[in-house]
Amino acid sequence: MKAHGIVHKYGDNVDTDVIIPARYLNTADHKELAAHCMEDIDKEFASRVKKGDIIVAGANFGCGSSREHAPISIKESGVSVVIAETFARIFYRNAINIGLAILESKEAAEHIAAGDEVEVDFTTGSIINHTKGEIYCAKPFPPFIQEIIGKGGLLNAIKGGN
Q1: Are 13 and 39 in contact (CB under 8 A)?
Q2: Model's pTM, two decimal places?
Q3: What is the pLDDT of residues 97-139, one digit of tens each?
Q4: C-alpha distances in Å from residue 64, one per residue of 13, 15, 21, 70, 71
Q5: How far apart are CA 107 and CA 161, in angstroms?
């Protein structure tokens, strides 16, 4: 399983209220959530993001409340993977549950810049920055978590769906 896209870069402590502002939590429509993803930190994100793009951030990405709306809005916006130095634990688990690929790599978080073209191999944990000609490492998920992400989330994996 691989991802390839252009990077949208953010700093440390990006909380769930910034990922999807609370004023939009009254909808369960995933497309509506995606339309407002990151708008309080990056007003142009929803109009700039393309299918396959990648978010790279610093430490403690997804801190704050435990709502699943945050990883859902990111996934629905077309982002193929979020790479961060570290993730808040509840966000980490919610991302896996809904099938959003995430990887922790301090080196990648420090060296990758906004606009870089990056490729990720989920099997090996290899992160290739084609713009800078650099390779970074992340610990890959075990096969059963790769299967959950590949099937679009925990419920689909349990049902045997795709």
Answers
A1: no
A2: 0.94
A3: 999 999 999 999 999 999 999 999 999 999 999 999 999 999 8
A4: 9, 5, 12, 10, 13
A5: 35
